[in-house]
């Protein structure tokens, strides 16, 4: 794929109200800017990149959205408002000018055609107006610190047209929160300077004063710049009575060449495209970047002033994605399943791996209170482990480095502070809010640690080991986190030791029923019961982590350790079965006095989704209770738009349960369809062998299948949102908080590893599908440890599960595990029955 060459899109689907999936080009093509709510795409990585919304607004950061923000994107502004960037296309009209934006925003000028192609780390607009066709492509070349904006204008009407291009960016103070909270200090420090070059090129340099010698932002273009503005007030005109919709500067031939010694810094460039004749195209490419100095930036500036390098960079980006996605490609009878599994779901996993829950149109990345979440990122990593294990390992090690010597983990860390080794890079998350609450005797009422965080890392490391076979990783030493100490001064331990301490921490923090303590919270952030409460989720996660650890130790040949962890597993399984069954389902928590939550006796929050799925996933649910719990879930929690996290929702704020009851019934954790929980239901169903159920749960939440009901769903159909309102809410079915959700990693794992059943193991590639009975089978290609496996699954008896025969390279083998080959292409034929 190059900047211009594309495969023909599937036109038949173009009739959809908002847009359609163009699978051939791996894009979603939006055909109207009037999306129900703001939709967006991601470009670049956390190292440099951010969000591009569908109307040209860009939120760009380098390394940390809170501490090194570049553009001033205010997500709460209405969709039609300017948000940090745009391009004006101006056409001479007699003695005056008319203009439009190819993004539609902010000029709101009627266009003859408008499309936004949401691609893999790029967005491309195609707009037509005044006899011009404008194509704008925004992307960040791989491993670069530059946002490129490739603008091509073609005269499609005939008769030469005199055209100008005016791209504009507005800068943020690097400390994102300060930009919003301090209107004296921020503008006093903001500076924009122009550096004209002899040949007509121009670089606009921008920095906050204290950063001048460390990090400067810049905007430039490949062609000559005849004038510019760096001061927003000057550009908009008339003391800002001119607007972004109609900047008064655009009525003049040239901009005012305003630098900015303080105030609202922008970078507006006047590029005269000159007279564009019929069918002729003018092309220019802008650059927005950040480097230590302009001198350092010069190399990249020169490089991308050559449009051949822009094309090359775009082709490299496409090649990156082709390679990333070819790790697993599938062909099943369900087109929207294929669309998600082959393109959009693994792509979303890449996004969550980069931005954790830090930067989206919902998680705004201000302040350092959020950062990279321990619980979230450990899970996100599992979604990219097959595609980019070594990149995943970098983040895995960062997370391990904020585990405390006691074994539990800090809840989140700020990436820049970690890099700078500040000694205070990590924090305890929301538990800090209640850290000082004490009872009459002065005892702390709440834990300042989360009961689940440290356990997830066992699953993450295990997934790396299974994918790569590199067991030597376990010997690598990483420091534990000791606040206030520099890394070199902290206690170190091997990664294996880190995992052991994680399990030991939970083993040593049990409650009245011998079940793991809740801590401040488990997966459900919103349930914060006083110290002493127990969590059946933490119980199941602990058990699952123990199973993974037994596998690791077995592979290492440490039979004594295997026996010990087996003992711990049996202990917790017994304790769980002795205390957690409620009659028709499993309870979810016990408070410090032993009262159950998630029981039929309760008025609200009678049954919880994770309370049923996780005991199955971890194997601690015994006998008929495993299926019974899942059947109760189906009966009481399932809806046509997904499984609710609990029911009924609390009807008002109840201080005893806190966060969960701050939402109205049907929203978020309070009886909403909190999507992250749904893939766990799918996985549990596959473990029970109920493939029709698993697939049904998959389809209910598949966003690609919601393209026809976007007026209900509202959220982007090309990625999973975090939540959908439940049936106790009037807006049942409405999705919110798109992109950064654990739904992505787990639905991807559920689809590929459990429904299709293709998963890495220490001994080879497992193929153990659990598919809907109506499927005749499916095909898949999976890269694993250097080899390519061409898998074909046939289902002649229309069962869900059970491998009757596996033939690898023509030879029948006595299991469902294809051997490790390390190279070549190998045929794996599987017959179910
Ligand atoms: C969102 C948080 O990012 C995630 O860690 C948590 O598990 C869910 N909320 C559920 O409470």
From TrEMBL:
Coiled-coil annotated residue ranges, if any: none
Limits of the Glycosyl hydrolase 94 catalytic domain: 320-757
Alphabetical list of InterPro entries matching this protein: 6-hairpin_glycosidase_sf (IPR008928), 6hp_glycosidase-like_sf (IPR012341), Gal_mutarotase_sf_dom (IPR011013), GH65_N (IPR037018), GH94_catalytic (IPR033432), GH94_Enzymes (IPR052047), Glyco_hydrolase_94_b-supersand (IPR010383)
Keyword Iron listed: no
Residue stretches making up the Glycosyl hydrolase 94 supersandwich domain: 26-306
Biological processes per GO annotation: carbohydrate metabolic process
Top-level lineage group: Bacteria
Pfam families: GH94_b-supersand, Glyco_hydro_94
Transmembrane segments: none
GO MF assignments: carbohydrate binding; glycosyltransferase activity
Keywords: Glycosyltransferase, Transferase
Protein name, UniProt field: Cellobiose phosphorylase
């Amino acid at each position: 794929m190059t900047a211009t060459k594309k495969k023909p899109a599937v036109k038949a689907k173009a009739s959809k109200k908002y847009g359609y999936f163009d699978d051939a080009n791996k894009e979603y093509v939006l055909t109207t800017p009037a999306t129900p709510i703001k939709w967006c795409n991601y470009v670049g990585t956390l190292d440099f990149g951010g969000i591009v919304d569908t109307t040209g607004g860009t939120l760009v950061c380098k390394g940390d959205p809170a501490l090194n923000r570049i553009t001033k994107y205010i997500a709460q502004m209405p969709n039609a408002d300017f948000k940090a960037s745009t391009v004006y296309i101006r056409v001479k009209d007699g003695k005056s000018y008319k203009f439009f934006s190819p993004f539609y925003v902010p000029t709101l000028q009627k266009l003859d055609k408008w499309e936004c192609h949401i691609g893999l780390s790029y967005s491309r607009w195609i707009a037509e107006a005044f006899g011009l066709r404008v194509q704008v492509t925004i992307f960040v070349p791989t491993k670069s610190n530059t946002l490129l904006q490739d603008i091509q204008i073609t005269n499609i009407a005939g008769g030469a047209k005199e055209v100008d291009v005016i791209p504009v960016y507005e800068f943020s103070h690097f400390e994102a929160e300060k930009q919003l909270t301090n209107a004296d200090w921020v503008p006093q420090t903001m500076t924009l300077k122009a550096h004209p070059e002899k040949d007509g090129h121009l670089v606009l340099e921008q920095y906050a004063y204290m950063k001048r010698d460390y990090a400067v932002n810049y905007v430039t273009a490949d062609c000559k710049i005849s004038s510019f503005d760096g001061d927003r007030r000057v550009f908009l005109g008339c003391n800002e009575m001119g607007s972004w919709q109609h900047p008064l500067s655009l009525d003049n031939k040239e901009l005012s060449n305003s630098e900015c010694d303080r105030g609202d810094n922008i970078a507006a460039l006047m590029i005269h495209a000159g007279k564009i004749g019929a069918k002729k195209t003018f092309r220019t490419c802008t650059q927005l970047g950040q480097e230590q100095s302009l001198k350092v930036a010069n190399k990249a500036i020169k490089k991308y002033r050559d449009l051949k390098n822009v094309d090359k960079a775009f082709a490299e980006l496409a090649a990156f994605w082709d390679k990333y996605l070819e790790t697993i490609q599938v062909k099943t009878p369900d087109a929207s399943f294929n669309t998600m599994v082959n393109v959009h779901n693994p792509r979303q996993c890449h996004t969550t791996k980069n931005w954790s829950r830090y930067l989206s149109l919902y998680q705004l990345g201000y302040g350092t209170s959020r950062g990279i979440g321990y619980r979230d990122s450990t899970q996100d990593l599992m979604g990219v482990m097959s595609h980019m294990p070594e990149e995943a390992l970098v983040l895995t090690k960062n997370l391990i480095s904020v585990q405390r010597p006691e074994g539990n983990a800090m809840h989140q860390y700020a990436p820049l502070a970690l890099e700078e080794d500040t000694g205070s890079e990590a924090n305890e998350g929301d538990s800090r809010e209640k850290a000082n609450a004490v009872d009459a005797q002065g005892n702390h009422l709440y834990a300042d640690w989360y009961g689940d965080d440290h356990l997830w890392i066992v699953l993450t490391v295990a997934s790396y080991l299974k994918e790569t076979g590199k067991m030597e990783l376990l010997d690598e030493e990483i420091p534990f986190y000791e606040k206030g100490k520099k890394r070199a001064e902290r206690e170190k331990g091997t990664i294996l030791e880190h995992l052991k301490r994680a399990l030991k921490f939970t083993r040593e923090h049990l409650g009245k029923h011998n079940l793991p303590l809740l801590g401040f919270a488990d997966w459900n952030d919103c349930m914060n019961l006083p110290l002493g409460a127990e969590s059946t989720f933490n119980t199941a996660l602990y058990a699952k982590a123990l199973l993974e650890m037994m596998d690791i130790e077995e592979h290492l040949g440490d039979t004594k350790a295997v026996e010990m962890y087996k003992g711990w597993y049996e202990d917790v399984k017994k304790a769980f079965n002795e205390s957690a069954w409620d009659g028709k389902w499993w309870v979810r928590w016990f408070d410090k006095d032993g009262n159950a939550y998630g029981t039929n006796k309760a008025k609200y929050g009678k049954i919880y989704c994770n309370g049923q799925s996780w005991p199955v996933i971890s194997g601690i649910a015994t006998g008929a209770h495993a299926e019974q719990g899942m059947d109760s879930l189906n009966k009481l929690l399932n809806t046509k738009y997904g499984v609710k996290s609990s029911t009924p929702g609390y009807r008002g704020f109840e201080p005893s349960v806190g966060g969960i009851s701050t939402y109205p019934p049907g929203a978020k954790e309070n009886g909403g369809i909190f999507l992250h929980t749904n893939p766990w239901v799918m996985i549990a169903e596959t473990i029970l062998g109920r493939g029709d159920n698993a697939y049904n749960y998959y389809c209910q939440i598949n966003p690609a299948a919601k393209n026809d009901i976007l007026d209900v769903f509202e959220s982007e159909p090309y990625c999973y949102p975090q939540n959908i309102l439940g049936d106790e809410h009037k807006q049942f079915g409405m999705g919110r908080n798109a992109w950064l959700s654990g739904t992505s990693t787990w639905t991807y794992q559920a689809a590929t590893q459990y429904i299709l059943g293709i998963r890495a193991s220490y001994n080879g590639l497992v193929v153990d599908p659990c598919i809907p009975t109506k499927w005749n089978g499916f095909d898949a290609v999976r890269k694993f440890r250097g080899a390519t496996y061409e898998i074909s699954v046939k289902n002649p008896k229309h069962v869900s599960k059970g491998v009757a025969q596996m033939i690898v390279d023509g030879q029948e083998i006595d299991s469902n595990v294809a051997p490790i080959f390390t190279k070549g292409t190998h045929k794996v034929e599987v017959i179910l029955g």
